[in-house]
Fold this protein.
Amino acid sequence: MTTCIAAVDQGTTSTRCMLFDRLGGVIAVAQKEHEQIFPKPGWVEHDPLEIWERTQEVIQSTLKQGAVRVEEIAAVGITNQRETTLIWNRRTGKPYGNAIVWQDTRTRDIVDEIAREDGIDRFREVTGLPLATYFSGPKLRWMLENIDGVRQAAQSGEALFGNIDTWLIWWLTGGPDGGVHVTDVTNASRTLLMDLKQLAWDENILELLAIPAQMLPRIVPSSDPQPWGYTLPEGPFGGRVPVCGDLGDQQAALVGQACFSPGDAKNTYGTGCFMLLNTGEERVPSASGLITTVGYRFGETPPIYALEGSIAITGALVQWLRDNLGLIESAPQVEILARSVEDNGGVYFVPAFSGLFAPHWRSDARGVIVGLTRFIHKGHLARAALEATAYQTYEVLQAMVKDSGVELSTLKVDGGMVRNELLMQFQADMLQVPVVLPTIAETTSLGAAYAAGLAVGFWSDLDDLGKQWQMEKSWEPEMTKAERDSLVAGWLKAVDRTLNWVE
């Protein structure tokens, strides 16, 4: 008898495996970090083989920790860092180079070239996305143009493209020995290559970017009653388990937060920060710098769409304070340091390390710290770094309200940074609405589990899942609107200083 669902959550800085029971409770969890590779300024890479190795390790650790036999696992769901792009050989499984991470900005010239005709919204009507270095399509073109032999291998059918979900599913289901080459609609919607209405690769865009169609994965639902494949007895699960759930990490969090009705919204605080608003079966175009994306598609039901505000650097800024400046020794210390001061001392920190994402979409921007005086010390810098996340989220929410006409009454939150009490209180103050945390904060993994579990009948329907959502804590606004507006005005002045830095 099956008793649990396995979820593999492959993120920007680490890989996690979790086992969930029928009530959505956590049976076991294991997590391991992988290396962040920075070959040049603005370049960010990952080693795909290291990611696959870490994936195998956390799966085996989780099964051992939970004392779970493979026969007890009903299905496997995958969730992943989106837009991160890699190409590998279908016969050997060897990558043609490191994966280009979503934060990477090396494709700016390609993006500018494409945008010369009709601007950054050239593909927005078809894809829901602006032209930006963020998405997979320009990264894929860069690899085809700059890695020896890749274009020829792609044209001959030897080379396969995928984001991290595709890479892991291919390996889990056999790799060079029959591994399935698929991606779900949510991940495909982040490539800048998929028609958002038809849920198919757009031939015109592929031709314009000179991308061979034969290297692309088959697009499938996020939750599929027909499993794409099965894990192998010689693989990390040690037996056959259906692989039938796949969601990009932010869409997985939307599902894990049970945001199943139009108007439901969530914000995930991880390496970056991503707010999604469920718009139902309607594709809402954005005029305010947001992304129109697929929220999820379960089986043959119509796809559910979402508006998304994507922020590149939030938790990564805390990591930067730790690893690059040595200001703290561990991430939780940033709150202690930030609490050593009453306020930011007039300092604002705009972490435009990879340009500005939503709602600005300015790849020419770079990070700034403004308002420095001799009064300022490391406590103020730590506080300004935390506040940057809340300010960026405020900007995204304003854009979301403008596009959708929906005034949020609460914001559901999840991700690693939600344990930072100072940040969550400041976020409630900036938004002037309650910020609500569920019992299970790692809703990304839970969403992947839900997708796989729905496919095999482990859970019956969305109502069944909605009943499992429970609130652990909420933060109510304490700051006056006038105080909030004054702080936001300073932030917007600081954002203006980041622009036009890269010529």
